[in-house]
Specification:
CATH class of the largest domain: Alpha Beta
Number of domains: 3
Structural class: alpha/beta
Bound molecules: 5'-deoxyadenosine, iron/sulfur cluster
CATH topology of the largest domain: pyruvate-formate lyase- activating enzyme
Strand content: 15-25%
Largest sheet: 6 strands, parallel
């Protein structure tokens, strides 16, 4: 389907991506497809013959940015009428959004959803033949396309999708409506992909899925996420395996033991709690209570005491009282997560929570969010302080964004470490080195390299 059918080797393209790693990885796939058609990547929109916006709709803020930025393209299209403008991704998959886009921004050439990015060559052909905006939004077809070329950003780490979609329907979340039902990739295809990445020099794999713990439930045979991890753990050239996201209701004892026992599987877990109040968790349709979550954390820490634990939290869910919020504050103080992504609840049309009464005013949401972030930052700092003067193992990923004389990488537990070294990056890139931590902060650690392994 994706031969080297070069349509024009001189054509340039760029993709602007919003949202999560899933979207970033979809953009890597579209990059692979476009390069196989003879397009070349450019960072410069003025130079591009094709500009794609890969959108996100998980929160309103992401959508507003998309509308704002696409609006600004009108001027570019007037100056360069031949440039092809395309909008795709989760936002387009929502009811009525594609039509609204077309109405508001008639200069857009192409609109497509999350289920048909493999169709990009055909869609671009249609654009060149038609004067009108080409729209193709498909419903969940349940198919997985294995032969899509992927062009990853060159690096030590690579994302590998193990499953698509979500069946959980948390009451606030739009994802199940725009990404469809759970579909697991066949384990043989995942293993082949990881082996190939290992041969190409990738050192770390990040497995992606909305809820990796239900991997395999839709496949024949006895494959589970733990079994998949144990198989991937055998692949020689890969040094580290991470994964996200884990739903607490599906996290098995077997998985805890697998993380503990597998040498390459990192001691890191992203385990979204969303709220510390059982009352709110029920309304969120999360299927666990505060006590069950706390028990789960206890079980995990019993087997893997030094696990790096992160979470997602939403404040201001409909009906959240001061008491519910203080339950969340109390929970984060008890658990002491290494880090947390914290959000104000954002009303998503079409989800059950959007229709609930007792919506919380923006002022209260903002106040609660600020309070929570402040407390969590102090906890993150306190946890990182435990590493002061300790030696940690860091997989070297590149140069620090802020200081080009400083190298950067991550610990096994997922913490970012920026460190000085007498040895240059080209000698250390992709290696695991020992670093002594000198200055722990809330979001990263600073240190100096002691030795390269
Ligand atoms: N409002 C705020 N945060 C949300 N998330 C998902 N939906 C919403 C929403 N409507 C958060 C959850 C999820 C993370 C990826 O985004 O915390 O875990
Ligand atoms: Fe959304 Fe819940 Fe599915 Fe995560 S598990 S993608 S929060 S519905």
């Amino acid at each position: 389907m994706f031969g080297n059918k070069a349509i024009n080797p001189q054509k340039y393209f760029t993709i602007v991506t919003y949202g999560c790693q899933m979207n970033e990885h979809d953009s890597e796939k579209m990059t692979g497809i476009l390069e196989s058609m003879g397009y070349t990547w450019t960072d410069n929109k003025e130079e591009a013959d094709l500009i794609l916006y890969n959108t996100c709709c998980v929160r309103k803020h992401a959508e507003e940015r998309v509308y704002g930025n696409i609006g600004m393209l009108k001027d570019l299209k007037q100056r360069k009428p031949d440039v092809i403008l395309g909008v795709c991704g989760c936002m387009m998959q929502q009811k009525g959004v594609a039509q609204e886009m077309k109405k508001r921004f008639p200069f857009i050439d192409l609109i497509f959803g999350t289920f048909n990015l493999h169709n990009l060559p055909k869609l671009l052909e249609e654009v060149s033949e038609k004067k009108e905006t080409v729209i193709e939004i498909l419903d969940d077809q349940g198919r997985i396309y294995e032969d899509v070329p992927v062009k990853r950003k060159k690096g030590v780490s690579a994302w590998v999708t193990i499953m698509y979609g979500c069946n959980n329907f948390c009451s606030y979340c739009i994802v199940p409506y725009v990404r469809g039902r759970e579909r697991s990739r066949h384990p043989d295809n995942i293993i082949k992909e990881v082996e190939k990445l290992g041969r190409e020099g990738v050192k770390e794999i990040i497995l992606l899925g909305q809820n990796v713990n239900s991997y395999g439930k839709d496949l024949e045979g006895k494959i589970t996420f733990s079994r998949l991890l144990r198989k991937l753990d055998q692949i020689e050239n890969i040094k580290r395996i991470r994964f996200m996201t884990s739903h607490p209701k599906d996290l098995s004892e077997d998985l805890i033991l697998t993380i503990r026992d597998c040498q390459r599987v990192c001691n890191q877990l992203h385990l979204p709690i969303q709220s510390g109040s059982s009352n709110i968790l029920k309304k969120m349709n999360r299927n666990y209570t505060r006590e069950e979550y706390l028990n789960l954390v206890r079980r995990i820490r019993k087997e893997i005491p030094d696990i790096g634990l992160s979470t997602d939290i939403i404040v201001g869910f409909p009906g959240e009282t001061d008491k519910d919020f203080s339950d969340t504050v109390d929970l984060i103080k008890q658990v002491k997560f290494d880090s947390a992504f914290m959000f104000a609840y954002s009303k998503r049309t079409g989800t059950p929570a959007a229709r609930m009464g007792e919506q919380i005013d923006e002022e209260t949401k903002k106040r609660r969010l600020e309070q929570l972030i402040k407390i969590q930052n102090a906890i993150s700092k306190e946890k990182n302080m435990l590493l002061k003067n300790k030696t940690v193992e860091v997989l070297v990923e590149g140069l620090s964004k802020n200081n080009k004389n400083v190298l950067t990488g991550r610990t096994d537990t997922g913490k970012i470490v920026n460190f000085t070294s007498d040895v240059s990056l080209d000698k250390l890139y992709g290696k695991i080195v020992k670093v002594r931590i000198t200055h722990p902060k809330s979001w990263s650690l600073t240190g100096e390299m002691i030795s390269a392994q």
